[in-house]
């Protein structure tokens, strides 16, 4: 009987160990899946290695266990519905809430228990980033060596070219001297008499061929006047102008790759006369939680460290302390370099074009440029901004350029307002210009009146 009981107890112990082992194996999460879930749900407020809106989550399981003697069940409850956990009177949950300025964490009831286990596994054992291959370093050294060799060759080639040019110059001088000597030897009395009748100066030549000279001078004067006129007409036209800005901002990354709408930053373009430069607070709407560049696109010659440094310039300008997640109150205004600037005597209203003329401008542009169609009205004037790393002036922005647009852009007469407001004008123009087939362009409704743009 005693022997049977001993074996029975041993069996229970073995079964208990087996169950606990099985439980621990079952609790083991998938770090790779956890990384995906973490990036999709958590990175807006958390990072593994530093505090953002919420605390750093690297090693959070061990930290909670060591400091608070709480297991992963508590973390599951917190992630699922932290508000309910706080409402239950949980001391640690309420301490965290108070510590982080009573910013309520988003509950994640959509995450399964296994999903949360995977996320916690990722915070405890994040996959190590792949180490750069050894041959990459070797390739860098080889490239450096090749560059040095190329520089030496270029230097040597430059010296050879200079010596060759000097030798050619010396040879030409020698040939000129010899030719002069030969001319003197062949000089005769007959040639001397002939030379006496020849023009030997510009004034003699001008007297002999005065009519030809006057004609040439007249042509030169005409060409000079045209050149000066053409130069004057292009004063203030800076197509292609793209100045360096105090903070590097890539529209290709923001508007192109990340698909951020133009009007999210330039909101006044739709409702105001001027499309304002966004304030730094607009930048901080996103970059409060984006402290480093995580994209895969890199402009040639620039790396992650470059983009991270530019984000730090935003923090310096706004006085944002990323470590404490609060503003210091010390700001440094950014002196942006303006690219587009209408003269004071020109009236241009962005909202009129962005709202009233949006579809008409897009349709007109796409009709004239079938190979470079646009989907946003801004691109008609400012070019394909979503492909520009550095924004540049894409068009002339001259009076002639604006007039040409007004003459070719058709007014949308199916628009309820236009259909009613321009009804009589529409009927009149259809009779007056039957060849237009009822189409009305902007110039027909006052788009060429001087007072529209100059007042």
TrEMBL record:
Q: Which InterPro entries match?
A: Cyt_c-like_dom, Cyt_c-like_dom_sf, Cyt_c_III_dom, Multihaem_cyt_sf
The transmembrane residues are 160-177, 216-237
Keywords noted in UniProt: Electron transport, Heme, Iron, Membrane, Metal-binding, Signal, Transmembrane, Transmembrane helix, Transport
Recorded hits in Gene3D superfamilies, A to Z, give: Cytochrome c-like domain, Cytochrome C3
PROSITE patterns assigned = CYTC
Ranges where the Cytochrome c domain occurs: 29-127
> Is RNA-binding set as a keyword in this record?
no
User: Organism's domain of life?
Assistant: Bacteria
The reply to whether Iron figures as a keyword in the UniProt entry is: yes
Q: Which SUPFAM superfamilies match?
A: Cytochrome c, Multiheme cytochromes
- Which positions make up the signal peptide? 1-27
Single Gene Ontology MF annotation: metal ion binding
What's the protein called, per UniProt?
A: Quinol:cytochrome C oxidoreductase
List the source organism.
Answer: Chryseobacterium koreense CCUG 49689
């Amino acid at each position: 009987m005693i022997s049977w009981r001993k074996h029975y107890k041993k069996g229970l112990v073995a079964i208990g160990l087996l169950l606990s082992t099985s439980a621990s194996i079952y609790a083991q999460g998938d770090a790779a899946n956890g990384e995906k879930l973490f990036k999709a749900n958590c990175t807006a407020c958390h990072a593994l290695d530093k505090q953002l809106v919420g605390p750093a989550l690297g090693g959070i399981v061990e930290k909670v266990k060591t400091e608070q003697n709480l297991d992963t069940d508590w973390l599951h409850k917190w992630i699922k519905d932290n508000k309910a956990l706080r409402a239950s009177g949980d001391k640690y949950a309420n301490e965290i809430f108070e510590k982080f300025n009573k910013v309520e964490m988003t509950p994640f009831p959509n995450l399964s228990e296994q999903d949360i286990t995977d996320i916690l596994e990722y915070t405890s054992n994040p996959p190590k980033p792949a180490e750069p291959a050894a041959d990459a370093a070797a390739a860098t050294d080889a490239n450096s060596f090749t560059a040095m060799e190329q520089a030496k060759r270029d230097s040597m080639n430059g010296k050879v070219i200079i010596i060759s040019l000097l030798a050619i110059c010396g040879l030409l001088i020698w040939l000129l001297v010899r030719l002069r000597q030969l001319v003197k030897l062949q000089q005769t009395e007959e040639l001397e008499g002939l030379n006496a009748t020849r023009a030997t100066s510009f004034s003699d030549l001008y007297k002999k061929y005065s009519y030809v000279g006057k004609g040439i001078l007249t042509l030169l004067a005409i060409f000079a006047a045209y050149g000066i006129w053409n130069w004057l007409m292009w004063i203030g036209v800076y197509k292609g102008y793209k100045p360096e800005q105090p903070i590097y901002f890539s529209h290709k990354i923001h508007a192109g790759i990340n698909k951020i709408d133009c009007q999210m930053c330039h909101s006044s373009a739709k409702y105001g006369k001027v499309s304002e430069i966004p304030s730094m607070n607009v930048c901080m709407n996103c970059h409060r939680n984006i402290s480093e560049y995580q994209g895969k696109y890199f402009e040639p010659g620039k790396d992650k460290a470059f983009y991270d440094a530019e984000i730090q310039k935003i923090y310096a300008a706004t006085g944002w302390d990323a470590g404490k997640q609060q503003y210091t109150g010390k700001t440094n205004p950014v002196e942006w370099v303006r690219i587009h600037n209408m003269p004071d005597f020109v009236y241009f209203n962005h909202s009129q074009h962005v709202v009233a003329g949006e579809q008409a401008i897009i349709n007109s542009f796409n009709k004239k440029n079938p190979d470079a169609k646009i989907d946003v009205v801004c691109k008609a004037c400012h070019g394909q901004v979503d492909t520009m790393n550095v924004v540049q002036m894409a068009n002339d922005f001259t009076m002639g350029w604006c007039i040409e647009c007004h003459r070719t852009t058709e007014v949308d007469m199916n628009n309820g307002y236009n259909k009613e407001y321009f009804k009589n004008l529409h009927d009149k123009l259809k009779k007056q210009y039957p060849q237009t087939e009822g189409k009305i362009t902007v110039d027909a409704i006052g788009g060429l009146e001087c007072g529209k743009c100059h007042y």
